[in-house]
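Homework help board

Subject: predicted structure for assignment chain

Our instructor gave us this sequence and asked us to write out the predicted structure in token form, then describe one feature. I got the tokens but I'm not sure how to describe them. Can anyone check?
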Amino acid sequence: MVSTKAAILCGGTGSRLRPLTYYFQKTMLPIGNSQKPILEYVIGYIKHFGIDNFTLLVGYKAEQIVNYFKNGIQFKVNIDYSYDKEDMKGNGGALINAYLSGKFDKYSDVLIYYSDILTTLDISDMLKLHQEKNFDATIAVSDHYKLPVGVAKIKDSKVINFEEKPDYNINSTIGILLIKVSAIRKFANLRGDIDIMKDMIQKLVTEGKVGAYVTRDFWIDVGSTDTYEKLDHNVIDQMFSKYI
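My token output:
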């Protein structure tokens, strides 16, 4: 996988995790019984699949990340940093800025990873699909989604059926995707507040160049206080300790 570099989105303010993120960068919040940062688990997990070159897209409280991970040598990976710019906002702006800074020059593909996601998805298998099908981008989707709220069926103002947090068979994105560097180049002139999924992937979808890697693997978004507070640290250790 020497042609693939990982770009981890870790520059956001983490508004869903306030008040914790008034003091911590969200990727630096501790998890597991060893209380290591979320980002350390993410980097170790990605490295497990043979990707050891990383660009961390940083902004809010970047110093916490840089001071901890440095150049990555202690984690047996290579890490560089791309800092957010005022005229290139949003995660799409951060990605384009990294591209324009030459962070992906030696690579054919970029693994984009939203830093508040934990998963056991097989990145190697996803990359194989992406390259064999020659997609411009491949997004990881789960074939089911458990709603965080109850759902009521109503008739004539009467609840006739109720399900608490039902599981729906829908293809939900999980914050992991692969994109060709040549596809990022198409958006190099965009400025302003740019979203990867809404502004970049949506455009590639209209061109018929986006694939889907469907998985039933475990995944969880730890980017809210509710989810973070309910994390079972024993489960985290059982599933992810092998990566760090």
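Reply (TA_rk): Your tokens look well-formed. For the description, you could write something like this. The first strand starts at residue 4 and ends at 10. That's the kind of observation they're looking for.
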